[in-house]
Amino acid sequence: MTRSSTGLHSETLPSSFYDRPTLGVAADLVGKVLVHTFRGRRTSGVIVEVEAYIGESDPACHAAPGPTNRNQPLYGPPGHAYVYLNYGLHYLVNAVTEREGFPAAVLIRALEPLEGTDAMRRRRGRPGLAAHMLCSGPGNLTVALGIGPRHNRADLSAGRLTIEDHHRPPRPLAWTPRIGIRVGTVHRWRCIAADSPAVSGPRPSGRPGR
DNA sequence: CGTTCGATGCACT
DNA sequence: GTGCATCGAACGT
Fold first, then answer.
1. pTM score, two decimals?
2. Residue A26 contacts residue A54 (beta carbons within 8 Å)
3. Is the CB of A89 less than 7 A from some atom of nucleic acid strand B?
4. Regarding the domain delimited by A2-193, which CATH topology (the fold level of the hierarchy) does it fall under?
5. What is the pLDDT of residues A110-140, one digit of tens each?
6. Residue A193 CA to nucleotide B7 C1', Å?
């Protein structure tokens, strides 16, 4: 048990949190807090947008071609990070879910910054950027928190990259199709905090935020 | 508001 | 050689 920036008790989510059906994990990750500690400094944000990628039968999941060198972490133990390079430019971070051997994960797509917004602006290289834009988008949040390929396979229940429960009040959730993919769009496996200005891309009703 | 497009690296066929 | 789970600037309306 630690003291969170909000003054409420918080604890790191255990591996068991991730060891269950991915859609449940995705819904429950909204409102939790992603934390990276670097040189004793925390940068963190409340998760407000995620997407589920579930099994070899999901054409948009990296496990669709079966086990490969890259997607190995998806087959590994739940509660570990899967970090990979996308479009040759952006690192994206996932939390591996379900039992070991079943490839599935939740992609973290947006945060509401909580701690270390100054460091986030420095890492983004955008001194004047509004707080709600600092971690909006999966490639942006990894830059803002300093997450990179060294975090691939990292244990999210212990270490420098973790997800915490700050016991924040529940958020109104909305499920939409996943975005940025060309296959598997039939599933509504993107879960957002419908009231958040930090969510990337389209949302049910137009709001400020991009 | 909207759409288009270039940058960029690597896994996979 | 092809195709991305992206971003942001540039341009059209």
1. 0.93
2. no
3. yes
4. 3-methyladenine DNA Glycosylase; Chain A (3.10.300)
5. 999 999 999 999 999 998 899 999 999 999 9
6. 31
